[in-house]
Amino acid sequence: MSLVLKRRAKVKDRINALPDALLCHILSFLPTKYAVRTTILSRRWKNLWTSVPNLYFNDRKDFPSFQAGPYGSNLFTRFVDRVLYFRDSSDIKKFRLSVTYTDDLSHVDGWLCTAVRRNVVELDFELCQSHYNQYREFELPQSLFTCTTLTVLKLSSNCITYAPPTAGCFPSLKFLYVTVHYPDTDSIEKLISCCPILENLNIDGILRCDVVSDIHISVPTLKTLSINLSVDRQYHDYNLFINGPKLENIDFKHDLSSNYSLEHSKSLVKANIVLKEVPCRIVALLEAISNVKYLSLSAERLKEWYLPVFPNLSQLKVVLYYSCYWEMLVMLLRKTPNLEDLIVEDVSKIWRMHIVPHGINMPS
Questions:
Q1: Distance spanning both ends of the chain, measured CA to CA
Q2: How far apart are alpha carbons 191 and 175 in whole angstroms?
Q3: Where is the F-box domain (predicted)?
Q4: Which residue, 99, 209, 268, 306, has fewest beta-carbon neighbours within 10 Å?
């Protein structure tokens, strides 16, 4: 018995031996609900959570048993209010807020304003009205547009509206990720136009065919652009006009309804194009990206006259849905005189080939 006690006495509490700053860093990877619960561990842990730089709130996950009614909404609101009230005055690095049900949108506005006052750097905000709500629009607070520390903004909503100030918007914002659900006519353009130094833009979601017909994206500093949009009705046309003189990387998932127009695309280096169908108007998009060095192309069928010559292409990845479309690969090889690396995917097989002057080396 005494030997066991001696061994236990030699066991060190390595967790409590860590400095407070490191413990706060560890807690910053947890949902805030669980970070707060660490107060029960010991006296030392009682106030550690108040200095955690990252805050994560999600009403569906924090109170899943009550997510579908006002009781759960009230619990979640009180929880977020108390966390922000008792938290110390240190800056907030990441603020992630996901709200599906709320009786009072003024609370949401207040939470966002608190994050801005605490010099938030990354904001991930999701607000989607559920069928339990009476649908109301939510306008982003003015202080968010003028936040000088915000560099990453992620927005996902079916009810957000934008009324930005006339000047001084998003002076530090470089990364913008937007998921839209039936937006107003110019809401996407209005938001993008507020970002003078934007470098990375990701747009995803669904458009209403009777509301949105044209989307203009013109950002002089943009380097990476990813677009995955669809419409709520098949065979409705909408146009995407893109002007990015510094654009280097694009990722487009193309459907029957989208028509891309790229201007000043000579700086493009890498492109990922997914074509669900291949209408003849895709020719303009392929022509605009013909100078890229790296191309990933996924398509069911292509005709040779759709394809321009890719004089600078050194690496090509092709996704073929059926073996009967292997002739498309032959067409592509005719259009890529300087190709060095080829990756082919077909249903359950993947081949990687290296192009050499006398043919193709294919590893076993």
A1: 63
A2: 13
A3: 12-60
A4: 209
Contacts of 135 (CB under 8 A, 6+ apart): 129, 159
Q: Are 177 and 202 in contact (CB under 8 A)?
A: yes
Per-residue tokens: 60: 């569906």
> Helix (H, G, I), strand (E, B), or coil: what is residue 288?
helix
Structure token digits, residue 132: 């339990």
Confidence of residue 82 (pLDDT cuts 50, 70, 90): very high
- Enter the tokens of residue 335: 């259009």
Alpha carbons 302 and 192: distance in angstroms, whole number: 33
What one-letter code names the amino acid at 87? R
Strand 224-231, strand 341-346: pairing: unpaired
pLDDT at 269 over 60: yes
DSSP 306: G
| Residue the block writes with tokens 């994050």 | 115
